[in-house]
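To whoever is on call:

I kicked off a structure prediction for a single chain this morning and the downstream step that reads the tokens threw a length-mismatch warning. I double-checked the sequence; it's 224 residues and nothing unusual in it as far as I can see. Pasting both halves so you can look.
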Amino acid sequence: MAITSRLVAKFNSYYADRPILTIMITNAILGGIADTVAQSLTAIRQKALRQPGGVNKDDFVAIEIHELDKKMPYSAGELIPSSKLLPPPFDFERLTRFMSYGFIMAPVQFHWFAFLSRAFPLTKTAGFAPVLKRVAFDQLIFAPMGLACFFTFMTVAEGGGKRAISRKFQDVYLPALKANFMIWPAVQLLNFRVIPIQFQIPFVSSVGIAWTVYLSLTNSSDEA
């Protein structure tokens, strides 16, 4: 508890001096954590698929990942135990891409959240209506654009061109957007109503670790 208090105090101190840079570094770290988790889950998934007899019924994690595999299956070539076809133990380039995206997007998020706070201020007499307006603006405007930026950035960073971007949008954009609408309105409702403004982006990024894991798995599944 004392460590948490010191971390919060340090964050507040850095945020007061250099808010945008603090958010950029925080986002990059959390993005790196998310992709590390995603790559670890991918390794567990591949190990479970390659073991004799398939997924062990007693392995809860492997079973959960196997359920995901039904939605995003590997091609037959990926399951051949050849060193040329197996991925590296850890993809540091992919980790760098996720950290870079979090770092670059942080200023955009910062100014967007500041705009929402100015446009829909919370008052003692009107506390819930402005929150609903913030959530509506965030989900109807920023979320679709943010997902578009994510898949475009990742595809370009992976060396893809216009055709690869078009394929990415055709295959994964709409499913990801639908998943976004199932999760993020509730998260942002809590965020805008309860969380202090300096912690709103870190809160979103922290909750977003699971979301970024999903995006990471979705993005990588389309590369197959």
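Update from on-call: the warning came from a stale cache, not from the record. Cleared it. Sanity check on the structure: Residues 23 and 106 are 6 Å apart (CA to CA).
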